[in-house]
Amino acid sequence: MNSRQILLFLLLFFSAIGANAQSQFPPSFDLEGDERFPSITSDGKVLLFARETKEGFTFHLSNKIDGKFMPPTSLVLPKDLPYPTGPMISYDGRWIYFSAKGKNSGSDIYRMKRWGRRLGKPQKIEGKVNTSGYEMYPSLTKDGKGLYFSRLNNVSDPTDLKYALYYSELDKDGKWGEPVQLPEGINLYSEKEPRILPDSKTLMFTSKISDESFDYDVMMAKKNDDGTWSDPEPVLSINQSKLNHPPCIDGVSQKAYFSKDGKLMEIPLNKVIEVKTEVKKEVALSRNTDSATEADETKKEETSPSKKPSKVSSFSDLGFDIKDFVPEPKYKAIIIGINAYNDGKIASLDNPEKDAASLEEILTTYYAFEKEDVKLLLSPTRENLIETFDAMMEESTENDHILIFYAGHGHWDQRRKAGYWLPSDAKAKSTANWVRNSTIKEYVASFKAKHVLLISDACFSGSIFKTRAAFDGADKSIKALEELPSRKAMTSGTLKEVPDESVFVKYLQKRLISNQEKYISARSLFDSFRVAVMNNSENVPQFGVINQTGDEGGGFIFIRK
């Protein structure tokens, strides 16, 4: 049996194995149209894909809960966006990159901010990536500083378009620099749909089998430490059709997801990462030379087909944290205390700044809050407040635990049925610089955090619950509370005024200091001082869900150092 016969046999053999390992996504994913371009966050929890119909492409998201993908929901894209396609969700889940047709001709790469299922306005990426030609199929590195994409290089034959892969990096001004075409070993005939893994070294893409063929196979190459690339090798377990597409990698579940004949499929990751040593050598030759003589010479160096396949990379080398699968929770806080008001018609207070500073000291001394993760705002303006909340929205991650504390004046507008916080530049006769409770709720909903706890010690602070009553149900176990996302609030009262010297804050701080439990839920903490506040003031503290912000029944857990 000569070398080419051996190669054919091995390709057929491993293709059969790969086909048996593949399985289709649930029926809820297989609707009218073809599902294409899956991508996933590095924690394996959010899957993005596109569905192609006669009208064009739509984008869809699915969250993974308890190891299973939920039925996907559609993302609302602007109606005037010209033919969006090839979406990719960034590994941190904050951005969606995609391409769309230009106004006159060509195709450009866009991006849009993501908060859950809320999307920002799509904008062309800035810099030197987009031209008057066709730029498509963006793939962002894990750190967000590198971008791989495809560019249509040759349009002389409309029936045989030739693509090439490029790479660009962000410059110091946050714009994409001059793209560099990847070397000839990767760009051979026509290459597109790059997928860079979280290690920023392993690249998968589709490539024409030969210059005469119209078939595309999925290839994989590795970037070496010196910046050169290994010879591309085929991903045999996925190359089952004439037009094959690269997978996205779920390193946590150790699976790969890809599109096959318009349907989403999954396959064990080790079927994708592992390849036979002898196949790697044969394919590198067949892709880079047609010399039968060289192939015969290489055959002498082959490893026996009976040997086990060699790994291109271990799972941990691919940029996934699979040690525990769940990172340690990160505790962050925004602590606000407002004493002084610029408008003389609004009475200044004596204690909120002191209460805020004391709470910061307690949280950083006794609990798992690091000093650099706590923002202390003393008598901030409305602009200061909004800028701080904007920054938290940008920085928050899915495993964050965010505490927001406010002490200062509050106001309830009976006519508008709306509650407000009053920053230091608030005016008594104008609501322009006031901060609506609804604005705070929008931020709470937009934070990409697992848990958010709002503690408000202000007049009429109970208005945060105006659309939903506070509850008195029993607390769950610490483990159950931690697993499910939560958006909760505790307030010093309902729709009543509270005194400058806060009894609520006094007992809150006292219980935080005296608590000796390693883990205590916000609800248990609240229950430990609620009666004391009621017995020593005219207010009735409240605890409950902040409605329509993403609460799923979990709870904020304080971890004592």
TrEMBL record:
<dbReference type="GO" id="GO:0004197">
    <property type="term" value="F:cysteine-type endopeptidase activity"/>
</dbReference>
<dbReference type="GO" id="GO:0005737">
    <property type="term" value="C:cytoplasm"/>
</dbReference>
<dbReference type="InterPro" id="IPR011600">
    <property type="entry name" value="Pept_C14_caspase"/>
</dbReference>
<dbReference type="GO" id="GO:0006508">
    <property type="term" value="P:proteolysis"/>
</dbReference>
<dbReference type="InterPro" id="IPR050452">
    <property type="entry name" value="Metacaspase"/>
</dbReference>
<feature type="domain" description="Peptidase C14 caspase">
    <location>
        <begin position="332"/>
        <end position="533"/>
    </location>
</feature>
<dbReference type="InterPro" id="IPR029030">
    <property type="entry name" value="Caspase-like_dom_sf"/>
</dbReference>
<feature type="signal peptide">
    <location>
        <begin position="1"/>
        <end position="21"/>
    </location>
</feature>
<feature type="region of interest" description="Disordered">
    <location>
        <begin position="284"/>
        <end position="313"/>
    </location>
</feature>
<dbReference type="Pfam" id="PF07676">
    <property type="entry name" value="PD40"/>
</dbReference>
<dbReference type="InterPro" id="IPR011659">
    <property type="entry name" value="WD40"/>
</dbReference>
<dbReference type="InterPro" id="IPR011042">
    <property type="entry name" value="6-blade_b-propeller_TolB-like"/>
</dbReference>
<feature type="compositionally biased region" description="Basic and acidic residues">
    <location>
        <begin position="296"/>
        <end position="305"/>
    </location>
</feature>
<protein>
    <recommendedName>
        <fullName>Peptidase C14 caspase domain-containing protein</fullName>
    </recommendedName>
</protein>
<dbReference type="Pfam" id="PF00656">
    <property type="entry name" value="Peptidase_C14"/>
</dbReference>
<keyword id="KW-0732">Signal</keyword>
